[in-house]
Each structure stands twice: as C-alpha cells, then as structure tokens.
Amino acid sequence: MTEQQATEPQATEPQATEPRTSDPETSRTAMVFPGMGPFRFTDVGEFLLTNPHARRRLAIADEVVGYSVFDRYRQSDADEEGQYTAHTQIAFLTVCLSLADWAEETLGERPELCAGPSFGQRAAVTYAGSLPFEETVRLTAELARCEEEYFRQEHRDAVTHCVIHTPEERLQEALAELDAEGEWHDVSGYIDQGFYLVSLREPVLDRFKKRIGELGGYNMYTMWPPVHAPAFGALRRKAEEVLGTFEVADPKLPVVADQNGELLTGADGVRTMLLDTFDHPIRWPDMVETMREQGITKVCIAGPDNLFGRVNRTVDNFEVVAIDARKAMRPRVRQRSARRARR
Asked: Rounded distance, CA 212 to CA 162, Å?
C-alpha cells in the first residue's frame, strides 16, 4: 500500500516540462495527496512541531495509538528497516492533511475534488469526510500490522520495482521472458508513458533490471513491502476484515479512485477503493483524465512528493502547486522579517 524502502535510484527521474498556469477566474482545483515514499524527519520535523494544524492532528493521533507519534518517528528516522512502520505512516498522513489544512487557511485553496494515489488514499478519504482523522489513524495502524503479518508468511521474497523510459512493448518483452521461466510477476502501477511499477521475486530482480537496461529502459528504485499486486488477494481479504469494523461515510467532496479514475461520491465506492489498493494496480493516467474531464486546471500536491507532481502526465495538464513543509514554514519567516522592518 505504501511506496517503501526505496534503494538508490539507478537513473535520474523523468524530467518535468514547464508547468501550466491557469486563469484564477476559471481555475478549478483538486487536492492531491501523494503516495508514501521515503521522507526524512529533518524535512518535516519542524513543521510537525510548530505548525498549529500539525500539532492539533498529532495530539489526536497520539491519543488514538497511545504513544507519541512524533517521538517514535524521530527516533526511528535513521532506521531503514523501520522506515514504514505504523508510526511513520501516521506521521506521513498527519503531514499531508496538515499541509492541506494550511493551504486552505493560508493560500485560500478551495478544491472541487480530491485524489490520493496509493497510500495517499488515506489522506484523501479523510479530507473528503468519509473517515474522521482519528479513525484513519486507527485504520492505518491496524492495516500496517495486517500487512506485516501477511508478508511475514506470504510472498516473503516479493518486491515492487520502478522502471522509467521503458516503452510498453519493451516492458512486455521483459515480462514475457519471466513468463517463459515460470517466474511470477504483476504490473502494480501505471504512472506515465514508459513509467511502471512491477512486482516480482527479489531473487530475479537483478536479472530483470539488467534486461530492462538492455532494452533501453532505466531502473529507478525498489520497494518493500511490495504493493498493488493482483496476486495479493489474500491480503485484501485480511484488510476487508479490518475495514469491516469501520464506518465509511459518503464523501463530502468527490474522490478520484486511483485504480481506474472513477469519480466516487458514495461510501460503497470509497470502501471498494480502499480495498482494491491491495490487489489492483494504480493508474495515475486514468486519474489525470478524470480530473481533466471535471474541468480541473490546478492540482495542489499536499505532502512530501517526488513523483506524482513531477511526471509529464501531470505538468502537461495542470498547474501544479507543491504544498510542502518548507513552503508552509516560509511565510512565518517573511512575516517576522516584515515586522522587524516596520520597527
């Protein structure tokens, strides 16, 4: 469910073109919550500690889980093996939603709909009103335990690998060679043209990466636990038992499903999306198309992101506003400087 334990990139990330700008009078905005990639405490720690929205949400999260999320995240930040534990996921969720709060209050953003690819679903359904924040925190903690138990017993050698600049026919060629060897694989994500997430067994990863390079593609990073693979139906069923104890409401703001771009306006659709993430690939191009059809001209990416707000599919279609912790902290510095200047 999360973009996890990324290794060092094997190639540079896709180069984004110049972002589009939109007319403020006709602009329609979507709030987009990114999937969870590695993010450092040093990048968000001050924001979590000082921003009033983050402090309020952290207090709620601490009460739900019974410990200091901030302290545990700070202590485990240097531990790569613990990078995607429940408390780190909750910290990421808190950062994303608090940044959206800040964007509404400070920038005056009023989104028409919201979306959240991969782990971003959790923030999206909370922002849309389908789950209260405290319930999403509890759900995140319980699903993290669920995934840990599952991958301790099943698909223990599976990983999800990211390839870029790889035409679909070349990817299919590499996957066909795995088929010929009887090796399992699933496509876990369609991000952009030539940009895919592929789940496979770690013992064949190096050979697969070498083959991608031979076919003219590039390897970026590898994630563990693996994500969004059709083979993980049993994990979905475990997650369904967990989600069954939560009451999902109709969203007050339409949500774009990350598996097929469907515009969700009812609780059943939201619940299905939350479960589909375990065994359905994400399809960012479908999400982009739906937002375009809804007249969206600007997307606010609320949270640490080095992917969805940068790919050509996004910047070619929307004005992209990165709502990150540094931006949220910057106005406070300017305001203090301005007060000193007036004195």
From this structure: 11
